[in-house]
């Protein structure tokens, strides 16, 4: 009888897998790559890419590493987890709200703490 992987793994490990998948998905999206394009580059199925990004515990580590190399060539798993991705930071910077107008002198004085 086949057993579900999620029943055999602790909640802490499942959380780590979801975090890893989120980091990979953010990197792919920041590089404006579709799941299908990333799957072709990594020689994986699009369904496998979706499972990786959703933190599925049944995906082989080799597939995760191939996917990482397709999205961020030359990066290691360690650097993915420990070093901020400049492309993701730039994407997030573009989505930050920007001031619509310049503050007047009176408003500047009001906000001067």
Automatic annotation (TrEMBL):
Gene3D superfamilies: lambda repressor-like DNA-binding domains
HTH cro/C1-type domain: residues covered: 24-55
Matches recorded under Pfam families: HTH_31
Molecular-function annotations in GO: DNA binding
Superkingdom in the source lineage: Bacteria
Residues spanning the membrane: none
InterPro entries cross-referenced by the UniProt entry: Cro/C1-type_HTH (IPR001387), Lambda_DNA-bd_dom_sf (IPR010982)
Identification of the protein by name: XRE family transcriptional regulator
